[in-house]
Write a structure and sequence with these properties.
It is a single chain. The protein is α+β, with helices and mostly antiparallel strands. It has a single domain, classed as NADH Oxidase, CATH 3.40.109.10. 32% of the residues lie in helices and 16% in strands. The protein is built from six helices and five strands. It has helices spanning 3-9, 23-34, 53-56, 59-62, 91-108, 122-131, and strands spanning 45-50, 74-81, 112-113, 116-117, 138-147. Strands 1, 2, 3, 4 and 5 form a five-stranded antiparallel beta sheet that branches. InterPro entries: Nitroreductase (IPR029479), Nitroreductase-like (IPR000415), Nitroreductase/BluB (IPR050627). Keywords: Flavoprotein, FMN, Oxidoreductase. One of its GO terms (molecular function) is oxidoreductase activity.
């Protein structure tokens, strides 16, 4: 799948088959995530691979939007290591770019995934920190349930010319 096709056809998948994800596929996802740009090349991302049922059953209580996580054969908790951050205002962008790369890579290799947000909701951050035993300097940003899709969603064209401006806000595209 070419990059533009992956971008335009990727959808959030919340239903998964129980088929396990190979170590090779997991490594492809992580390599794609770590290829993301980052401010000052800080690369503050860390990834916790989660497939332990006892942990995943607790996730929906911490984040109701991640209710599907116990059904996915694999989840990736994407975190920021604040000790690696050089410009404190940019680490969220760094982690977000890594997550988007991961989502696109999953789609490109035939997997489905969904971005379930943790940061900046304090209760979610605290709950995930405790559940996954994260040190104080690590911030959980998102949990990504991943698996072979057990649903299909048509691509959506979300282009809206009204959201495009030329040179200044006052001038449309």
């Amino acid at each position: 799948m070419e990059a533009l096709e992956a971008i335009l056809t990727r959808r959030s998948i919340r239903k998964f088959k129980k088929t396990p994800i190979s170590r090779d596929m997991l490594e492809k996802l992580l390599r794609a995530a770590m290829a993301a740009p980052s401010a000052d090349n800080a690369q503050p991302w860390h990834f916790i691979i989660v497939d332990a049922e006892e942990l995943l059953k607790k996730v929906p209580k911490l984040n109701p939007y991640a209710a599907m996580s116990p059904e996915a054969p694999l989840n990736i908790l994407v975190c920021a290591n604040l000790h690696k951050v050089k410009n404190s205002n940019f680490w969220v962008q760094d982690i977000s770019a890594a997550i988007q790369n991961l989502l696109l890579a999953a789609h490109a290799i035939g997997l489905g995934a969904v971005w379930t947000g943790i940061y900046p909701v304090p209760e979610r951050v605290d709950g995930f920190k405790k559940l996954f035993k994260l040190p104080d300097y690590v911030v959980p940003v998102a949990l990504i349930p991943i698996g072979y899709p057990d649903e299909y969603k048509e691509p959506e064209d979300r282009f809206d010319i009204n959201n495009v401006h030329y040179n200044t806000w006052d001038e449309g595209y």
